[in-house]
Amino acid sequence: MAMKVFGQPMSTNVARVLVCLEEAGVKYEVVPVDFATAEHKSPEHTSRNPFGQVPALQDGDLVLFESRAISRYVLRKNSSELLKEGSLGDSARVDVWLEVESHHFDRPMAVIIYQCLVLPVYFGGKTDEKIVEENLETLRKTFRVYEDRLSRSTYLAGDFISLADLSHFPTAYYLLATPHAGMLDEFPRVKAWIDGMLARPAVIKVIEMMKASA
Amino acid sequence: MTGGVKVYGVAASPFVATVLVCLEEAGADYELVAVDMAARENRSPHHLARNPFGKIPAFEDGELTLFESRAISRYVLRKNNRMDLLGGEGGDLEGSAMADVWAEVEAHQYSPAVSNIVRECVIKQMIGAGERDQAVVDENVERLGKVLDVYEERLSESEYLAGRLVTVADLSHFGFTWFLMTTEYASLVESRANVKAWWERLLARPAVKKVTALMPAPGGVTTTTI
Q1: Where are the domains of chain B?
Q2: Which among A51, A62, A92 has the least Cβ separation from residue B97?
Q3: Chain A interface residues facing chain B, Cβ-Cβ under 8 Å?
Q4: Which positions in chain B touch A103 (Cβ < 8 Å)?
């Protein structure tokens, strides 16, 4: 039976799971959750994700939520080299940079994406440039660390691509759609790293799904 | 080679405290090397070489340097064969997935709310960074209440977040919850029977007791310890 992913591909958290499923070559089905009708708050959905968020994953009797936990499960189940669980040191480095992605990249990016893309397009609101600027500054600090890191190894956790790198792609993809994509010119290694990820077949496939569900 | 690992930071940091709990659970030899936060040692070149974001903890095991408390904790437990605490004993895919889920919940739902309460009510006073912003506290108390309602429901189904057995998902709550319980907002935990019982189970663990002995009592922390 194919795994079921609940949520829309345009969501960065859903896309994160989809890229792992694609990389692992796993059969899956996407079941949309309609935010416009508050389906994410329905008893049926909250029985899968008690915080009423997306994604959720169903694999037989197992139901999971939180995209990075789902991603680990999918990759681990398929013995993917994207986790490096055969090596204590390498897997630790994957864990480090996955934490960095959560706390130093995703956090400012979520605000920037909301202000620049979601608020004006979906809610007819006005971008708060002050908030955007504050979060761009935080993002710059993060990118400075990444630029240095990527001068020492090809990817974040080492000379191998891992979940830590791929976890960035959906959010990085949306950064390119904001008026602030140009900031990446200040960080050439980061830019090349993102471009490299966006060229992967699994990523290209998920981007098509993200565009189709927008 | 001594065989011991090094944790750079101070026990009063909720993130460092969680790593210490995992080291104690693993029975690992370790040394806590103080970082003088008041003197901004966390921004010094030698600390930035270990944690490029200038935060604590940082961690060294021989040639391996790590940062981010949750990554350090996983490494410590894996290295010391405590796969049970990662939910993955015997290669249990479901068990490890459930531990991962609730570890993410701590990181993305619980800690963002509780850390704001702890920062406003405890840490700012400790380091002399001003008075609490009650509006921020109130907003996060409401947020945390909703999260704890989910926990209350979850903990009616099992003794620990990931299931029958304790895992890193439970242990990673130690640091911030310790400080929360020193404030008037301890009532958020105390008013929820299952959450309260769960917290008390964690406090009763020998490893947790060892670390609570290192934690500051309310009002007992100087600027050099944060």
Answers
A1: 5-81, 93-213
A2: A62
A3: 50-51, 62, 64-66, 68-70, 72-73, 76-77, 88-89, 91-93, 95-96, 98-100, 102-104, 141, 145, 148-149
A4: 68, 107
Residues of B in contact with A95 (CB under 8 A): 68, 70-71, 74-75
Residues A140-160 have pLDDT tens digits of 999 999 999 999 999 999 999
Give residue A109's identity as a one-letter amino acid code.
M
CA distance A179 to chain B (A): 26
Q: How would you write the pLDDT of chain B (226 residues) with one tens digit per residue?
A: 456 899 999 999 999 999 999 999 999 999 999 999 999 999 999 999 999 999 999 999 999 999 999 999 999 999 999 999 999 888 899 999 999 999 999 999 999 999 999 999 999 988 888 999 999 999 999 999 999 999 999 999 999 999 999 999 999 999 999 999 999 999 999 999 999 999 999 999 999 999 999 988 655 444 344 4
Task: Please name the fold of domain B93-213.
Answer: Glutathione S-transferase Yfyf (Class Pi); Chain A, domain 2 (1.20.1050)
Residue A9: per-residue pLDDT? 97
Look up the pTM and report it.
0.95
Beta bridge partners of B58: B8, B67
**What does DSSP assign to residue A124?**
-
Most B CBs within 10 A among A20, A61, A72, hence the mutation to make, goes to A72
Number of H helices, E strands in chain B: 12, 4
Residue B104 to residue A98, Cβ atoms within 8 A: no
Strand, helix or coil at A4?
A: strand
Helix (H) or strand (E) holding A58: strand A56-59
Distance in Å from the first CA to the final CA of chain B: 30
Q: How many CB atoms lie within 10 A of CB A185?
A: 8
Write down the architecture of domain B5-81 according to CATH. Answer: 3-Layer(aba) Sandwich (3.40)
Q: How many residues does chain B have?
A: 226
Predicted confidence (pLDDT) per residue in A94-124, tens digit: 999 999 999 999 999 999 999 999 999 989 9
In chain A, the residue whose alpha carbon lies closest to the alpha carbon of B97 is: A73
Which of B97, B100, B98, B179 has the alpha carbon at shortest distance from B144? B179
Contact A50, B154 (CB under 8 A): yes
